[in-house]
UniProtKB/TrEMBL annotation:
Stated name of the protein: Uncharacterized protein
Pfam family, one: DUF6526
Highest classification ranks of the organism: Bacteria, Pseudomonadati, Bacteroidota, Sphingobacteriia, Sphingobacteriales
Source species of the chain: Mucilaginibacter pineti
UniProtKB keywords: Membrane, Transmembrane, Transmembrane helix
Transmembrane segments: 16-38, 44-64
């Protein structure tokens, strides 16, 4: 497995992120256009059903992606909170957002504490946190 770093840590699955997203959006737009064109005709009910089906598929794909990410965020918060507690015997500050904590998970133990302090002092953005990491700690188990 390739060494993970800031440049290659994002996981994009082309079939899901690009192809499926394009097909769902195109289908939803097509269903809206079809419903508009069928308004006032005998086929309007069928067009509405197609629109309902397209909207349902779009929403399902959205929630199918967001629910595991939320669960992953909870796990990351717990894991990083435990790691910080082991290193400091103090709880991780609740001033850190989940996106900041998720970015901090890539920092090795020796870089974590100074980076947490800097993040709290400067309210660093997740991208800036990741860029500040010198020795990347890979996470190959993300959703």
């Amino acid at each position: 497995m390739d060494q993970q770093n800031f440049e290659n840590h994002k996981r994009n699955v082309a079939g899901f992120h690009y192809l499926l997203s394009f097909l769902l959006i195109a289908g939803l737009i097509g269903a809206v256009v079809n419903a508009v064109y069928q308004f006032g005709t005998g086929d309007f009910f069928t067009a509405l059903l197609l629109l309902l089906f397209s909207a349902t598929l779009f929403l399902m794909s959205w929630f199918i992606r967001t629910f595991p990410i939320r669960a992953q965020d909870r796990a990351i918060r717990a894991e990083e909170g435990l790691r910080y507690f082991i290193l400091t015997r103090q709880p991780l500050s609740n001033k850190l957002s989940i996106t900041q904590i998720a970015a901090l998970r890539f920092a090795p133990d020796d870089e974590l504490l100074p980076l947490v302090e800097k993040t709290l002092a400067e309210n660093m953005a997740p991208t800036d946190i990741k860029k500040a990491i010198k020795n990347w700690r890979a996470d190959h188990h993300r959703v």
